[in-house]
Model the fold of this input.
Amino acid sequence: MAEGRDFSVRFWGVRGSIACPGPDTVRYGGNTSCLEVRCGDGLLIFDAGTGLRPLGPALDKSGTVDADLFFTHTHLDHVNGLPFFSSAFVPGNRFRFSAGHLKPNHNLREVLGLMMTPPLFPVPIDVFRADITYHDFSAGDVLHPKPGVVLRTQPLNHPNNATGYRVEFRGKSICYVTDTEHVIGRPDAKVLDLIDRADIVIYDSTYTDEEYPRYVRWGHSTWQECLRLCEAAKAKTAVIFHHDPSHDDAFMDRIAAEAAQMRPGTVVAREGLTLTP
Done:
């Protein structure tokens, strides 16, 4: 197998803020953030939005699951698929859940447990039957979740904090940078460091540059900033991600066409898409 061919990312949820399934979003998808990253035999999952629900049955078909689940942050659109993640209910499966934005005031098990507490949810977090451990690190740490896999992290500019990730495997790299807000005319140095010369950069592209002034301090960025950052960092493939729920398929088609003109090779994420660096 050629170098990098067993390193891939599949998109199970590409939407931001709230799930928006329906006839107007069927081509790009309405589920919220969830990625499946394969590093040889290793499985990394990023975020537990509603896209995590369809990932579960797909994993269950392959037998026992051993995976790491990394959270960018714990706002609802990135965690509310977790109670419906079928693989977490299977005895013998093993998961390590990790987050880098909660220390020192909170921890991951506490926060996820609050979500699964009556009357918000009818069953508690200990209903899971898989072997699950919970881990808190500090954004900026370098992690080694699997043999041969390096996971670099950086803090992101988002309300209540968030963590960006760079997965390195066999000389290739995939970056996942959401949710984050830029400052106009001042590229984020931490983001530039994280995505430097990366093969694939998946970036918070919630808004257009024209929309952004109405949403300053909401914690999100634009697809044009995604392309500017990738150009500055000499990254290869820019991936527009975390689509605003008001952006229907026709709107996303227009973004795709404009992005292809601005930076050829740019990808607009859609559910079911798999990319290989």
In short: The longest strand covers residues 149-156. DSSP finds five helices and 14 strands in the chain.
